Amino acid sequence: MKNIPSFLPCFLSLAMLFFFFGASAQSGLRTVQLPGHATLHFVSPEPIQYVDISTKHLQGDLPIKNVLRLRVRDSVPVFEEAVITIAGEKFMAQFRVVKGDGTAPAQVCIEPVDMKPLDISGIGLSQNQLRRIALDLISRRPSGAVERAGAFSLKGKVNSIYAFDDYIFLDLSYRNKTNLRYAVEDLRFKIDDQKVTKASNVQSLELKPVFTLLQVPAFEKSYRNIIVLKKMSFPGNKVLHIELSEQQPSGRTLSLGISYQEILHADPLPN
């Protein structure tokens, strides 16, 4: 793409350059220096969904969901430049990576100025958007309880249920009234029959949260969290069970039940 015929109209040349990501120096991309043969890390504010590297001279991987690790392949004697495309849940960013020396920074944070918004229908809210809403909700003082339960000197509450877009936000809190530290084994969400006996063989539908605000392995006295589920519907003879279980050998378990009517009457959050 560097040898574009001069007789082509200027606007066509620019369109082709943008489409094929060529002629990086003319496209206004942020230039980043690769620190010699060291590793360069791109840190994204959102989980990375897609990466494109314009040359085989570089190799990259995602050691964690929001970090792209990049370096020159061992078999490449000389690296000149490349264009790196990174897409998150709601943005795309491109960088011109050029050869640098050992003094170049080994970490690049993707800033808002680097991002082009992606309008992908049906993708829903990004993890950052869910986090912002959840942080706002947990900063509010609980005003009551939709549901309560207690066992083994452990008390649980569904403080509030909120609805936003295609999501249900559950404000949960637990109180440990013993002097024994509660080590969390799991927090599960299942749709079951309202009345279940230990001897009954029933099918339950387990729901996986799309977002959990806090990862709490254990708590001494109190625990509060915001859990986000996709909107769901279920028959009136079913209930959404929220089951908190403790690690063995103690194994205390507490279950909270939410009816579909309570979900239907969730408090709306403003757009």
TrEMBL record:
UniProtKB keywords: Signal
InterPro entries linked to this entry: Conjug_transposon_TraN
Signal peptide (from-to): 1-25
Pfam families reported in the protein's UniProt record: DUF4138
Name this protein carries in UniProt: Conjugative transposon TraN protein
Originating species: Mucilaginibacter terrae
Lineage, uppermost ranks: Bacteria, Pseudomonadati, Bacteroidota, Sphingobacteriia, Sphingobacteriales
